[in-house]
Amino acid sequence: MNLIPQVKELVPSCGTCRTDVLTVLNYAGLNKETLTLLKERFPQLKVEKAGKGCFADLSCGEMLQPVDAGTKPDAYVLRVTEKAIRIDAASESGLFYGIQTLLQLPAPVIPCLEIRDYASIPLRMIHWDLKGYQPKLEILKEELKLLASYKINSVLFEVEDKYDYRCAPGVGVRGAYTFEDMREISRYAKSMNIMIVPKLQSLAHVDYLLKHERYAKLREDGHPFQYCASNPSAQKLWESMADELMECFAEHKEYFHIGADETDLLGRCEKCSKLGKGGSYIHKVECCIDFLLSRGRTPVMWDDILRNLHGNLSEQEARACWTLGRKAILMYWAYGYGGVDNVFPFLHEYRSAGMRVWGAGGFAGCDNWAGSLPPLKLRALNLDAWAKSAVENNLECVAATGWTRIASADCPAEPHESSWFTILYAAQSMWSGEHVPYERFVMQLAQRFYGTVLDEELAAAVMNIAEAPCPYENLPVDGDAGRRLQFLRYAAAAESLAADRTRLGNYLQYYHGQLGTAMPDYRLNMMKKYSAALAEKLEKFKAEMRVQLEQFYAETTVEDFIQSRFGYLEKLTADFRALLAETREC
């Protein structure tokens, strides 16, 4: 049936149902947007809202009898008979996901069957990081709709400087989202059964803000990467920004992520040194936690300081920070393979200490800081390991992070738009709790998502771009390809530019001492021909890549990608050609 995520139980039966002869939709427990999805797929149906409960019944007038879907997370039962289709669920979310499965079934003829399904992990979270890329507003809404259709029910939303804070003037980039934009995003996510968890860094990773002169006094010992943990004005600004994000996402009142990771500059200034590294960390993070608790939100924080991942604290100081993990949810991030039996070593220790723990693997931004296409073969190992650990340890949430910029000063990493294979593998893994053969998944998702089978070269690049680069010269001329497929192809080609940088570097090494002076004509002419062709390719490729990016992303985002992928190589090529022009034949 090519269902993604795969369902728990599918029992086929004899016969088929022709959906174009169904006439009535009776329902309860559907919101307006979900009802619209059904009406778009089945426009001939007369819609009748029934009484209580959570069901959708498509028939020729005679409804099927209800059945019990059970009490597991987001459980539903979908039945197809020759004369009717019915979805029963114990919750509105279960009904929503049953409809997502129905919309993946073939039409107008569906085989008769019964599907019983539920989520292996209750809270299935995707990290939507805007540091590196700012999608156009309508594109962002499309992305939320796509996530929902593959049964993702939460987004960890990291806005950084892509939102124009009213309480923090000058922080937002040119063209940043407005408050009204955020309100629209919030309402739309809610309608798609997606919970937004805002993320606002509370201590480190704040150079996007502190680099501005008006906020310089809030820096830790003059360093813009980190707030001074003892500065009450820094805390006041953070609280104002957090309040504003809570107002932006007023429909989502459950959780708030405070970051609190990679705090390398603890205890530097005079005030913080009196508290010590661990003491200043505890003071600042606890202030943020208590503030959120006073606002009725459950705080979430990264765990790396508690396990002293970076060695910045003494073991005693790190252990003292464990008190914070009993006041906030600890998000345990680990982006490598889980090791023996896929066990993450701190999971049992955290939980034994009475902490509420969520897991976090990675779908992008983990393997190549200037990558353009995440490697499914590596990411899926990590995502499967977390899903397995979550099921075995009854974790309520697993997140898949996608770092689009490792830190504010770094270049953009893989875009969301070229990461759908790893994003939706995470969705598959978190819903089903089971491994799926990667090659089969690539084939099935390509057919489902892009409407075609990927060519062999692109499929290999999706599996592991480092092992199977896709040169620009091999891009197919396909005027009928959808914009998302074309973007994927261009992203794969962009990452292959590393081979050109390597080749130029090799020439500079091989002929050092000859370049700029004299060298044999046969070698000089060869390199002149190559460098001229490379310069022409870069100019053409850059223009085409810009067109691809501009379909999805804001102008500032487009320019960052172009500069980081093409800028240095263009300069290297120009410098190389200048050296060749100075070289005489001998």
Could you explain how this protein is built, in words?
This protein is α/β, with parallel strands linked by helices and 586 residues long. The chain has helices spanning 32-41, 92-104, 137-149, 179-191, 207-210, 232-248, 270-294, 315-320, 347-352, 376-393, 420-432, 438-450, 456-463, 483-495, 497-510, 521-550, 555-582, and strands at 9-18, 24-28, 46-49, 55-59, 76-80, 84-89, 109-117, 123-129, 154-158, 195-199, 219-220, 223-227, 255-257, 298-302, 329-333, 357-364, 397-402, 518-519, 584-585. The chain has 17 helices and 19 strands. The strands form four sheets. The chain has an eight-stranded parallel sheet. Strands 1-7-5-6-4-2-3 form a seven-stranded mixed sheet, covered by helices on one side. Strands 11-12 form a two-stranded antiparallel ribbon. α6 packs parallel to α7. It is globular and about 90 Å long. The termini are far apart. The model has no long low-confidence stretch (mean pLDDT 95).
Question: How do the helices and strands line up, and which of them pair or pack?
Answer:
Blueprint lengths: L8 E10 L5 E5 L3 H10 L4 E4 L5 E5 L16 E5 L3 E6 L2 H13 L4 E9 L5 E7 L7 H13 L4 E5 L20 H13 L3 E5 L7 H4 L8 E2 L2 E5 L4 H17 L6 E3 L12 H25 L3 E5 L12 H6 L8 E5 L13 H6 L4 E8 L11 H18 L3 E6 L17 H13 L5 H13 L5 H8 L19 H13 L1 H14 L7 E2 L1 H30 L4 H28 L1 E2 L1
Parallel strand pairs: 2-3, 8-9, 8-17, 9-10, 13-14, 14-15, 15-16, 16-17, 18-19
Antiparallel strand pairs: 1-7, 2-4, 4-6, 5-6, 5-7, 11-12
Helix pairs in contact: 3-4, 6-7, 10-11, 15-17, 16-17
